[in-house]
Structure formats: structure tokens, C-alpha cells
Amino acid sequence: MSENKIKWLNIGIGAFIILAITLLLVLILPLSNLAIEQDEIAIISISGTVTYNPSNSTKVTTSVSQIENALNEANSNKNVKAIVLDIDSKGGSEVASEQIADDIKNSEKLVIAYIGDKGLDESYLIASSADSIVASSSSSIGGIGLSFINSDKYSKLKLRGEYNEDYLKLKKSNKTDADKLANGQKMIDQDYTQFIKKIAKNRGLSPNYIAKLAHGKKYNGNEAKNLGLIDRVGNKNKAIELAASKSNTTNYTAVNYPKAKKSLTETLSENKLFNL
Asked: Cβ neighbours of residue 209 under 8 Å, at least 6 residues apart?
């Protein structure tokens, strides 16, 4: 074969490869139009310590940006009909929890909170911002104000919610300056009061009533239901079914959000043209 023919053969093969790649991209990129669409219930996990910024710690944490990204993705996907928060947390940053709670209340789509093993203190504040709360009968719920109380002291003082000098000394590295202690006590009291008011508003209850249930006290699912801290007793599937029912969704798939990026093989397998 002459060099000229070989040259044109190589050009032809190259053009064919470029055309094939272009065609493949054209088929894959408009995936939303070509993929088999199905209604979804988005599952967003809130586990470990709630933090404002992402953490490099080996411990399990959930940050504001993680939840915001997941909520944005779920709300922007027309296939998502409702959202379920899968909560298993003792709490964490009050500022972070308040931000997440506000984001949930601003969600365009229905949000159901499911409390698994535990939904305490700041994580309960997050749950209270949802449209409805489901928890298992053995879940640990409430713990309202737990972070405001010295967790090292399990005494009658803690049960009564008295924030005594021992707590403040611990937080102030044992400094006992009267003015600093008084100022610290004032800040704790103010934050605690506001915290209770937010939960009361979210649950449609009076602050005085929530205050009686607070002081770090925990309740199981049945107790929490009777006290008005949750709406239904059930497992995670019940929470998903409730989300589907309230959003008038029948045929759906529960999908974790944010979604993991799919491989090329997975993308092609979902494409109608490749499954004829």
C-alpha cells in the first residue's frame, strides 16, 4: 500500500473516532432527556457532630455546606417529590444547626425528619424544622439544652437545669472572677431561652411547655409522641412512606443525596438508546 493511501486511511480512521466520540457525547450529555426518569424521595443523612465548616477529623460529622448542597440538589431535581432527613446525632454547633434548620424551612419541597438512634439537642432543633417528625419507639429524643449543661455532672442540679458555677468554672479554665462568671451565666441563659423558643415555634408549642421538657432530658419514641415532640412512631421506611403519601407520590425510588457521581458504564446503562 502506498504512503499516500496509508495517509488517507489514517485520516479516515481518525475522523471516524472523532465522529464516534462526538456522537457518544451528544447522547450522554442530555441525560435528563434520555434517561429513564422515575419519581424520587431524597434521603439526606445528618449524622455525628453537627459542624459549621467541613471537618478533617476521623470522627463522623455533618457540616452546613453538606446539607445545603444536598438540599439544593434535591430541590432542583424535578424528579424529587419529597425529602427525608435521616438523623442520628447528639447535636453540635448551635449556629450550624440554626442555619440548617432555616435551610430546611426554606425548602421548596416537603421535608420529613426521621430520628434513628438519637436526635438530641441541636440535632433535635434541626428535626423540629421539618414538616413532620418520625422516630422509632426506642430512639433517644430531645436532650434540649444538653450542651448548655455541664455534661460531666449527672446531678440533681443538671436535672433542674441550673447552670451553676462549676459549669462556668470549667468553661473558664477554673477562673472564678465574679464578673466573668456572671456574664457567662447571662450569655448561657439568653442562648438557652432563644434555643427553647425556636423549638417551640417549630413545633407549634409554647416556650413554657418546651422548657418543662428541656434541661437535657431524653425521651424514647413513645414518650416523645405523647409529649408532642414527634408526630409518628415508626422506622425509616415509615418516614419514607409518609413523605411519599404527603407528596402524592406512588411509584418512586428512595435515593441518597447528594448523589454520587456515576461512572460511564452506569450512565450508559440508564440511557434508553443503549437499552433497546
From this structure: 200, 228
Please name which of 105, 67, 65 lies closest in space to residue 86, comparing C-alpha atoms: 67
**What is the spatial distance between Cα 125 and Cα 142, in angstroms, rounded to a whole number?**
9
Return the CATH fold of 38-141+237-262. 2-enoyl-CoA Hydratase; Chain A, domain 1 (3.90.226)
Residue 12 pLDDT > 90, yes or no? no
**Taking Cα atoms as reference points, which of 29, 109, 44 lies closest to residue 77?**
109
Residue span(s) of the chain under CATH 3.90.226.10 come to 38-141+237-262
184 pLDDT tier (thresholds 50, 70, 90): low
Q: What is the pLDDT of residues 231-246, one digit of tens each?
A: 999 999 999 999 999 9
Q: Is 209 exposed, middle or buried (0-12, 13-18, 19+ CB in 10 A)?
A: middle
Alpha helices in 77-164 (DSSP H): 94-105, 122-128, 156-160
What's the Rg (C-alpha) of the chain? Answer: 26
How many angstroms separate the CA atoms of 9 and 276, rounded?
A: 33
pLDDT exceeds cutoff 90 at 13: no
DSSP class of residue 35? Answer: B
Alpha helices in 165-206 (DSSP H): 165-171, 178-203
Decide: 252 and 81 in contact? Cβ < 8 Å.
yes
